[in-house]
Amino acid sequence: MVKNFKGKFGEQFVYKTVDGITVLAKLPKRSNNPPTEAQEEVRERFSMAADWAKNVLKNPDTLAAYAAKAEGTRTPYILALTNYLKPPKIKEFDPTGYHGHVGDQIKAKAWDSFEIRSVTVRITDASGTVLEKGACIHDTETREWIYTATTEVSDLTGVVVSAEAKNRPNHTATVHVTL
């Protein structure tokens, strides 16, 4: 009889679903303590995620991208919300193919809960001066992002090779390796 009930019942109980079963529970009690700094940060981050998800629903092109991956109870809104809350990750970064020569390759594998939009590689010298920077090409077979060097670098001492992955909400993950 109460299988699909959800929400508050009067001022005493709440119906909720736990592992697919509807249960009746006591109303949760609100704390009178002020929120901690960490709680405020979580609330702010969730609020920004909700704003992002609402904007996704307003943009037909972005909505179509999320709708194409939505299935079951994962609506485009939930996908967008989750995508905002989970930043991208660089799972593997391999600069061992880089020896300072034009044509050397640097490889990365990046992951995101929705999609990686781009991976960029930056090579800087020991003083922080950018020697070169550019976009990686995505190899769909190996699932690697590959950057091909365009500048000859004679001295690799202290050279830093960095990769930055960017997802659809433009959140980034960065990794650095000093040669």
What does this structure look like?
The chain is of the alpha+beta class. The protein folds into 2 domains: 52 residues, no CATH class; 90 residues, Immunoglobulin-like, CATH 2.60.40. Helices cover 23% and strands 37% of the residues. It contains 3 helices and 11 strands, in the order βββαααββββββββ. Strands 4-5-9-8 form a 4-stranded antiparallel beta sheet, with no helix packed on it. A 4-stranded antiparallel beta sheet has the order 7-6-10-11, with no helix packed on it. Strand 6 and strand 7 form a beta hairpin. The model has no long low-confidence stretch (mean pLDDT 91).
Let me know the number of strands. 11
- Strand content range: 35-45%
Helix-strand topology string: EEEHHHEEEEEEEE
Shape: elongated
For the record, what CATH class of the largest domain applies? Mainly Beta
Please tell me the CATH architecture of the largest domain by its name: Sandwich
Helicity level, as a percent range?
10-25%
Mean pLDDT reading: 91
Global structural class: alpha+beta
Tally the structural domains. Answer: 2
Distance between the termini: 67 Å
- Provide the gyration radius in Å: 23 Å
What is the CATH T-level topology of the largest domain?
Immunoglobulin-like
For the sheet with most strands, the description reads: 4 strands, antiparallel
The number of helical runs is: 3
Summarize the structure.
This protein has 3 helices and 11 strands; from the N terminus they run E-E-E-H-H-H-E-E-E-E-E-E-E-E. The chain is α+β, with helices and mostly antiparallel strands and 179 residues long. The protein folds into 2 domains: 52 residues, no CATH class; 90 residues, Immunoglobulin-like, CATH 2.60.40.1220.
